[in-house]
């Protein structure tokens, strides 16, 4: 999956010479947390977050605040060094960028211009879709040997039962000799599949008793 | 005018025609087993039995797309190509095509509508249609053994014909997704579903965060309990949730879906409740129907896949609650003798489950505590709303 499939194309940007007060209004009205800052050529020159704006705003406890601060240009508080991505970047890679850089959003830039934005919650939503919990289905978790062909073996068992697979995840087992496969299958009755998988000599981790699987 | 009855029991042997095939876990012989158990107890009089009517296409279209209804009709005549059927969720492992499936499904829907009319026209306080409760059916798609969603249709029918505000309470071990989504934006229908968490179990939805949308926000409640939840915790969650939701919503009528698949014996789910819970569920619903709805209570069946040991007892207890009859001890010997010959398992001999029904559940304390937290989160809005208004 690539970024342009999940990015939000309706981006609210500001010019560097607009004021912090303008930024506050935009953040509140659009209920957003980040504003990319652009120049007259619509090229990205910086970014501000709701936290930057809050830091620059007078304290609500200050009874006689200096309102002049709010008239400063956003360029005075923006971060000029922006982490960006391209519409053709892979979602999985950009999710790692979010994690490593500990950031809340990534502007998507093509030929210098901002064409979209992806936030942390967009990313999370996409990952939820990838795990398939959005369609009626049952969850089955299987431990298989870490050798080639095991995934194919399991999927062919499932397909013989004419059950549609909604999603598949493969993740490492604590023991290198094995891998865990997680399926969401479109059936309310996974018992037949579980029986078939067990009959083929695989270990079904879920459904199972608690304590036994750990 | 004839005297108002306490309760009516919707039944006809034709309800058993909703049948996929012999190996399918959803088997309506459950209704016959329950019927005969009640007959044997001498607790079900002939004048209390009402035949289901056949739902019209117009009734079914209150919820379902006409294209879907046509597809079901064609499938039942063997005229629907496989690739088109699968778009409608038909011809799958869960909902295989069977002969005259439209007619069989329409009769189940009609049974729930008959139950509704008896209660809403004041001919009976309560009505029970064990053939209904097919809560996974969607507007244009069959899912999880369900073709037409009788409960959704009945709720829309009560909205349109009687202008009633309906509280739907679903205690099936699976989330009542079809009904929830049908009324997700409707503030006059409140849905409460208590089920095993969808993290692993079908259908996967039913999270506490699903609370309704638009005008319907705050009228969908979900309490997903952990796998291996036992009676004590399950009943506590159910009792608290249904009491607080009923008090908040103040319904005109209560429709309960009584899936009996949360029992320890049930092969499809992973909860550990016993017959004690199935005695408790209709008792509380009954009390609340009298407290808020002048007695108006319609109960339908639902899931339940240990059709021999669990479902007949659990479902008989709904009727016995409606009739205010108490039973305990041994089941009627005639019934046991007759059905033991067919049952692949040893039938449970008494109304109560044995003390040692299952081995002790590890992590019981943690499960109970987690369920309690889930309940608190699920009811958060009601409680904060209540505190604010005092």
TrEMBL record, chain A:
CBS domain span: 7-63, 78-137
Location of the ACT domain: 139-214
Lineage top rank: taxon: Bacteria
InterPro entries to which the protein is assigned, alphabetical: ACT-like_dom_sf, ACT_dom, CBS_dom, CBS_dom_sf, Diverse_CBS-Domain
Matches recorded under Pfam families: CBS
Keyword Transcription regulation (UniProt): no
Keywords assigned: CBS domain
Name of the protein: CBS domain-containing protein
Organism (species): Exobacillus caeni
